[in-house]
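Weekly structure sync, notes
Attendees: PL (lead), two postdocs, one rotation student
Agenda item 3: pending single-chain targets
PL asked that the sequence for the first pending target be pasted directly into the notes so everyone works from the same version. It is reproduced below exactly as submitted, 370 residues in total.
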Amino acid sequence: MERRLLKYLDWGLLVAVLALIGIGLVSIFSATHTNKALNYGDAFFFFKKQVIAAIVGLIIGSILLRMDHRTLGKLAWPIYGISMALLLIVVVVGREVNGAKSWLYIGSFGIQVSEFAKVGIIIALAQYLSGKEDLDTWRGLLGPLLMVGAPMLLILKQPDLGTAMVFVAIAFGMLFMAGAKPLHLGILAGIGLFVLFPAAYFFFLKPYQRMRLLIFLNPYQDARGNGYNIIQSMIAVGSGRLFGEGIFRGSQAQLNFLPEHHTDFIFPVIAEETGFIGSMVVLGLFFYLLWRILHVISESRDLYSTLLCTGIFSMFLFHILINIGMTIGIMPITGIPLPFLSYGGSSLMANLICISLVLNVYMRRQKIIF
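Predicted structure, written out during the meeting:
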C-alpha cells in the first residue's frame, strides 16, 4: 500500500477493534475451555477457530484497503445479486442450527450467509441511494424499501427475526442520512411495529421464538424454561460487582449455568469475571469505535462513502444495544451476537470487512493527497 495513503489510516479505530477481538478471544476461551461436552475435549477448540476467523478477516480487510471502496460501489448490483442468491440457497438447502436454517455448509466448513449479506446490502443500498434525488417523496422510498425487503423476507423464512431487525436498522439509518423525511420514516416505523411485526410474529416465527420475545417481560414465569437464559445472565452480571470474580473464575461461566455463554451471552462472562470496571472498558471501546465511525462520516467527501459508513454504524449500534440489552433483561432474546466479542467466524469476518471499508473511506477522504 502506498505510504501516502497508509499515513491516513485511522490507527485509533484499528487498535480499538484489535483490543475488542483480544478481549473476545480471552472470554471465549474462559467460557469454553472446561466444558468437554462442548469443546470435544480440546480446551482451545473455539479459541483456535476464532483466531483463524480473525486472521482470515484481517487478510481480507487488508486486501480491501488496497482497493478504492468506490470500486465496490460500481459492483453494487452484482454484489446484491450474489447476496440474494446465497440467501435463497440457504432457505432451500441450508442446515438448521439453533432453530434457524441460516447455515450453508461445504463439507465441514459452515458459513452464516446472512452475516455477509448485511455487508452486501449496505454496499448496494449506499450506491443506489447516492443516486436518488426523490427520497423526500413516498414514491422515492418504494425502491429502497423493496431492495431491503426482499432479503428480509428470505431471512424471516429461515426464520431469523433478529437479523431481519438489523436490516431495518441499517435501512432507516441510511435513508435518514440520504435525505428521507423523518415524518415518512416515523410512519413506516409505525406500520412496521403495528402491522409487519405482528405478521412476522404469527406467521414466520416458531412458538419457542415467540416465547423468547415475551418472556423478557417476566422471565420468572418460566424460570426453568424460556426464562432461564435471562435469569442466569442477570445473575452473572450482578455477581461481577466492581472488580469481578477473576479471569477463568466466574461461577456462572465455568460451571456452565449460563447457556450460549460463548456466543450470544459473552457479555455476562466478561461482566462476571472482570466486574463493573471490565464492563466499562468494553463499553468504552464500543463507544470509541462508534464515535470514530461518526467522525469518518463527517469527513466523507461523497454521498456514497457517507451512506456506506452510516449503514455500518447503524448495524454496529443496533447489535451492541440489543445484545447487551438482552443480557441484562431489558431487551428480548433475539440471537444477535456482540460484534468482535461473540464466538462466530462469519460474524467476525463480516465485521472486519465493515471496519476495513470504514478505514478505506477515511484513508481516501482527501481528493488530492500530497
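Discussion points:
- The mean pLDDT is 87.
- The first strand starts at residue 95 and ends at 97.
Action: rotation student to compare against the earlier draft before next sync.
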